[in-house]
Amino acid sequence: MISYARQDSEERPDALLPADDHIAPSPRVSVQAFCETVETAAAVQSAGEDRRLGKAHLKIQMGGMAAAVEAYRTAPTPNVIIVETDGRGDILAGLDQLASVCDSGTRVIVIGRINDVALYRELVRRGVSDYVIAPTNALDVVRSVCGLFSAPEAKAVGRIIAVVGAKGGVGASTIAHNVAWAIARDLALDAVVADLDLAFGTAGLDYNQDPPQGIADAVFSPDRIDTAFIDRLLSKCTDHLSLLAAPATLDRVYDFGAEAFDAVFDTLRSSMPCIVLDVPHQWSGWAKRALVNADDILIVASPDLASLRNTKNIFDLLKASRPNDRIPMYCLNQIGVPKRPEINASEFAKAIESPPIVSIPFEPQIFGSAANNGQMIAEISANHRTTEMFLQIAQRLTGRGETKKPRGSFLSPFLEKLRAK
C-alpha cells in the first residue's frame, strides 16, 4: 500500500496531515538510509533511537541515491531503504537504477524537496512506498517506517497504557483497574489488564476472579507464546474486559531480564485494542522497559513530598527517553486525608511543570467496600464523582476526549460548604 505522509489529497500536496498520536511499533526489520544532508542524517539517527523503532536494525550512510545504487550492486537489499535526493530528474533516473539492483519485496521511502502531485503519481507508479518532503524530523521518519507495516484498512490495535505508582501505597493498582473498567464499559473498547506484580498483584481480587492460569504461565514459557496461548490465559471479566492475572504466590521468585515481557506485550498488541499494564512500584530493567515502551503513561501520586520527588524523577526520565511521544500524565490520589498536611495540586504542577489530570479525593468508605467486595467504584455507585474522574482519565489515555469537570448537582455548592465545616 502506497502512502504519502505529507498530503491529505492529491489536489493539495502542501497540506499537512494532523499528527497521529498513536504509531504502532515496527517489527524486526532492517532499514538502511542513504542521506545527502547532515540534517536528514541526524533526523534518521534520532528516529532510530525512538522506542517504536527499537526492534529495527538501522544503518545510515551518506551519498544519497548514487550511494544506494552502488551499495546494492553486490549486496542484498534490506527490508526498507530510505533515500534522500534533490531534483526531479535525479529522483526518477535514480529510482530506475535502484530498481535494477533491488531485491523483490524491498520497500523504498524517498525523502525529497519537490512538493508536486505529478511527481508523487510517478513515484507511486514506480512502486515507491512513501514520499516524505524535506526538511524532515525524527517523527516523520518513525511514522513513515512504521506505517509500512500497518494495514491502513485495519482497525488500529495495540495501544499500551502503563499505570505506575510514584511510591507504594498510593492506590495505583486501584486506579489502573477502575480506569480499565471505564475504557471497557464506557468507551466500549476491548481491553485487557495485565497485572505485572506477580508476587502480590491484586487485579484478581479487585475483579473477583480466581483464574488457574495467568501472566506467569506466559513469562515462564516464552517459546509457547502466541495469540492462541495468550487467549487461553485470559480471564473474562465483562464483555469488553479481560484479565491477565498475577499468581500472587510466593513459591518462586520473579527475577526477570529486561525483555522478559516483550513477547507477551507484542502478542497482546496484535489482538487487543487496549492493554492496561498495572506496573508495580519497583525499579528493574523490565519495569523501566515497560514504561518507556508504553504508548501512554499514568503516574499515580499522593499529595506528599516523597510522591512529588518520585513523580518528578519518573517524569523527567520518561520525557528524556521518549522525546517523540506525548509526555506522561499524572494524577493525585487520596486527597483530603483528615489531619494530614498535604502538598496541593498547584505546587505539584509548579514542580512537574504540568498539572495533574485529576485529583481524586480520599473516600475510604466506598473504596474499601469496593476492594472487599471485588467490585469497581462504578458498580457500587455509577454516579459517584470518582466514577466520572476514572472516565476522564480513560478518555485522556485513549485519546477519546479531553477532561471535563465532573458533573455536579445544584446542591454541590452547599455540600462543599458542609464538608469544609
* CATH level-4 homologous superfamily of the largest domain: P-loop containing nucleotide triphosphate hydrolases
Give the strand order, joined by hyphens, for the main sheet.
8-9-7-10-6-11-12-13
Q: Any idea what the CATH architecture of the largest domain is?
A: 3-Layer(aba) Sandwich
- What's the order of the H and E elements? EHEHEHEHEHEHEHHHEEHEHEHEHEHHHH
* CATH T-level topology of the largest domain: Rossmann fold
N/C terminus separation: 65 Å
> Total number of β-strand segments?
13
In the predicted model, the low-confidence regions spanning at least 5 consecutive residues are: 1-20, 402-410
Which tags fit this structure?
421 residues; alpha/beta; Rossmann fold; 2 domains; eight-stranded mixed beta sheet; five-stranded parallel beta sheet; disordered N terminus
How is the secondary structure organized here?
Elements: E1 30-35, H1 38-48, E2 57-62, H2 64-71, E3 80-84, H3 88-101, E4 107-112, H4 117-125, E5 130-133, H5 138-147, E6 159-165, H6 172-185, E7 191-195, H7 203-206, H8 215-219, H9 227-233, E8 235-236, E9 241-244, H10 262-271, E10 274-279, H11 285-293, E11 296-301, H12 305-321, E12 329-335, H13 345-352, E13 359-361, H14 364-373, H15 377-380, H16 385-398, H17 412-420
Parallel strand pairs: 1-2, 1-3, 3-4, 4-5, 6-10, 6-11, 7-9, 7-10, 11-12, 12-13
Antiparallel strand pairs: 8-9
What's the quick description here?
The protein has 421 residues and is of the alpha/beta class. Helix content is 39%, strand content 16%.
